[in-house]
Amino acid sequence: MSPTVRSALASVGASLCLGLFSGPGCGATESLPSTLSSATAARTTAAAAGLDARRVSLPPLAPLAGDRLQYRFCDHAGEAVLDLRDPTRADAAPQREGDSPTREPASLRERFLAFDSPYKMVSPYSGLRGEPALRVIEVAIAEPAVDKYPRTAEAQAAPAGESAPRFDPVWNRYRGVYESKVALFAPTPSCYRYRLALPDSGLLTWHYAAIPPQRGSDRAALPVEFSVLVDGQRLWSAVVGKGKPGPQAAPDVAPSAPGPAGHWLSARVEIPRRLNGESASKRSALHTVSFCAVTSKPDAPKATAGDAPRESNPQVKTSEPPAPPVGTAVWGSPELWSVGEGAAGPNVLLVLIDTLRADALSAMPRLSQHAQQGVAFSQAITAATWTRPSLLGLLGGDLATSVGQSAEEMIPSERERKRFYALDRRLLPRALRDAGYKVASIGNNFFLLGYPQIGLSLGFDEVADVRHPVEDTPAISRAAIAFLQEQAGRGRAFFLQLHYDAPHWPYTPPPEHLKGITDDQVAQLMGLPESERKGAKLDGMARAYLGEAAYADAQLGRVLDELDRLGLRERTLVLVVGDHGEVFDPRHNHYVPSLKQPTLYHHGWSAYDEILRVPLVMSMPKRLPQGVTVSAQVRLTDVAPTVLELLGLSTWRAVLPSGPRGDGQSLLPLVFASPRPDKGPPPTSGADRESPPEPRGLARLDDEAYGRPAYAEGQNIRALRHAGYLYLRRGDARLQKAQGNDGVGPMLRVAEELYDLVADPLQHSDLLASFAGGGKGSPPERNSERSSDPANDPRLGPILLRLREEFARHTPQPPEQGLPLVHLMLAPDARANHVLTGVLSSSDAGLSVQGVRNGEVVPRGPGRIELKLRPGGVVDVLVDPSARIELLLSRDGLTVVPRELLLGPFSLPLLSAVATPSSDGKPASSDATPSPIVLEGALLDRLSSSYAPVPGERGEILLWRDQTAPGVSAASTSAASPPGKSGSGSEVETLMRDWGYARPSAPSGPVSPTAPAGASSRPSDGGT
What is the pTM of this model? Predict the structure, then answer.
């Protein structure tokens, strides 16, 4: 278990003391920030305490047969010895006179920058920093044939015959399947060697691939040979590329089929018992497990069991450069399983159907039938009005802003992406991964991949992104079935997330799924009261949408059937949920000028019940009741805590982003509550109102029967659904009434809307509409100077004020800044009153000052500030960790030269040997105009410090940066730093060499850099 998780779990006892007992020995509960009055805040705190007090006591889970995950090799990549040299030359004799000079092996950084693939990123969750972080990457391979996915074992042995799709760096629109895996980066030649104890009965599993360059491979490219060895004994090998030698394995191990370059291939091998011997001492001894990849000439002799990995013959001299490998070698998700030790826990199958409204269930008979086998929530409210923030809320147990990503921007800036990784958020996939689960995602959802600019890596081991407007739906089901079959055979605990995109625009269902759609279903989707349905013109787009829902329903049924056939239903928690809805009601058709978008047939910038209410169904035999419908309002943020509690991991709630007291709470108290009269809003189809309803009293806002307050985020829209009211607020109040997808009519200013959902479930009568100002013929304006304030209305005012207060209380706050700050300090000097002046600039135009002490700062344009510091003064600057920094400084009127700038935690003159270039790129002469001191690339890594350096006493100038999070550091290393010239990974050696106390030298052997103490977020025991 990782130190981070252990620390979080250790705090649970105190949290439970605060939340549950409040008796002797427990401290007082710290109140939440609120704009409510003291009486209201007390009432809300009491309700939260009452919710926790009703926690359901579930019986302990029975042990489950199967394999247990023992060791993830990617999690321990920093502990491995990595050899980047030709293994046949490791012990070669010294070079003799006349021999051709020996080229030093390229560093891992050089090889990563030369890795020609747009589908790659350094894993933000490896816990490694600097160049060692490049060992663990997330990399995808594109399979062009969606209709043939997943490829069968027979098809893996031959090329697909189709070219890979092009790359779209933002939306990834090109059709294909993008299979991403957490992998060991293993450019040939390379060998990862691990020392670890092996179980009595062990199974090694992995994927492997040689990924060709995007620009096209060389015809003379050499095949790549992959080998797995234990204690020097070769257990398995395979050649990928042009070579004919097939996989070689120990006689008692079944070989895996070879395959072409540019595809993920899978393999597994049992560890022979003889490696451990018979005695207990030998069984517990440490063994060496090696993953090696080398280039192999096609005419090379075949390897035999027990041989070391081979490379091209070093004795053969040639004037021509060696041919490149057919592709860059990677080892995808290498794992060690302990056979028959018992699974980590029950399985989780989370099925998310994109854009699925709650009322679309009328077109989904299979899902409706499945709901009768478990628990259905009729008033489930999304966390956001579009996919990425909704998914963050679903998996994080809190609203997206609180998790660390705004719901406003569709494409997050690079700074925001780095900030998210710097916060090191543990969403549900990472929590279950740490608990020993195999975590994977299959679906049409580019938000789950880190390399597109629109997505984020959320901690899955494997992600298959299936991109096609029609063929994606059956391909997802086929891949899910293949995954279930693979895991069922071994009894492994898994968390599989499926993401069907069928109901999302464009609505293109196969024609057979339109046959069962009725006019009444279409009219209901359009928000037509029963009195208006006869003879009404029905929307063909709404009908096509329901056909897409039926299409997803049929494919979901295939997966559920297979779950039953494999006998997995008894040990699997199944959840089916929509992430948000879609607008089809013509009365909600507006044009949003700030986004230049209509609301009809869209989502994201509208927040009526069409968008907010989604299906939520969960089933788990012998753990959850059957045929139960919960009518109280719940939130998608409640799902993650509920999953952990059902899996017997309730204390793991503390590792989710918001900790044990976040927005989301377990749903089990509502599931197991005694029946009560249904006081929630009636179904939308039962409403037929012609005039604005009378608002209800305040008592409803304190009635628990209505469920939990639900806050939803969106683009230019926020909503609070509470006690049968819907309160909407917009950042930019401008709206235009629209017809179709064109903006028409006058400009309206609608900053707030309020609906009584009990009396007006279709939200056709805004209670605030009568307070709009303006005379006849003039465009109505709300909340303007000439509009009356509805808060002063004796009937509506108290309700509106309460909802405004609740809205403010539930509005999420972004977490503390995740990116590290750069600090520039002028140390005090008892002998002189120094003054430091100058300019700090950066290639990051978003540079901002976060604080200044004993000095002044003046902005001078994007990415540039002018500063003045007195003795002991410090300026704190937020700047992208990979951005170049330039300083042009003077102390007491004299130019500060590089050797006077002391860097990092030890205040070292690491720039003493740096020649400051002039503007023309040549070294500056002594009489030239002062040039700025430039820090970029590897020098930026030297700034990182886990603590502030001790200031000197003679006016020293210190520059350091807060310790970067592993993901940020890795991104900085791979994206911005120039290739290094040394294969050494020793930070001490590099530091001393930069300072001038050590000479650069060729590495004498393989290196094993590790993460700084306390830096790794990986469990030390492989997550079990």
Answer: 0.83
